[in-house]
Amino acid sequence: TGAISSLQRRMEIQESELRRIRSEKELLQKQLREREAQFQAISDKFYNLTEEQRQEEAVVTMEEENRNLQQVVTEQESQLAEQNKLITELQETISQLRAEAVTTRLQLLQQKQAQEEIQSQVEALQHKEQQTRVALEIISSKFERYRNKIIQATFSVEGSRDPQGELTDNEVLEALQKIINERRELQQKLKNKGSK
């Protein structure tokens, strides 16, 4: 926003300078037209003089006026050329500033869109994390119930001793595997004896 404001201020200054130069150009053109009118008036004046006066005065006056007018025209044409050059440069500067302002606005819009997209992704990840936590709590609860059932089934078998303190998963598995092995051996013995 600061960059856009700065570009707009620069653009306003350049446009004000352009208006001033155009005004000066119009003034120079007006002065040039006035000189041409003076030249025409002098020409008309000499035309109305007598032939002899015309011949005597016209040469000197016309030459002097021609030199003066030619000098004025040359100076004003030079000034107009400089003014036109400056106007062109100012127009180019204004166009550049406008392009920079458009580019800056576009960059700000892109940054805003990227920020909104990132915010949306963050919210989606937070929602997914919450769902994962809930699912993990459910699974942990189910696992704990299942583990307790295994411990209860393992140590409720006849001849087994009640566990002393907290059991690790390996201890539970070893106890369960022992029961499975004993039942397998018993089943094999009964099978060897031919009993159903």
Automatic annotation (TrEMBL):
Coiled coil (UniProt feature): 4-131, 169-196
Keyword Zinc: no
Superkingdom of the source species: Eukaryota
Coiled coil recorded as keyword: yes
Keywords, alphabetical: Coiled coil
Name this protein carries in UniProt: CCD27 protein
Species lineage: Eukaryota, Metazoa, Chordata, Craniata, Vertebrata
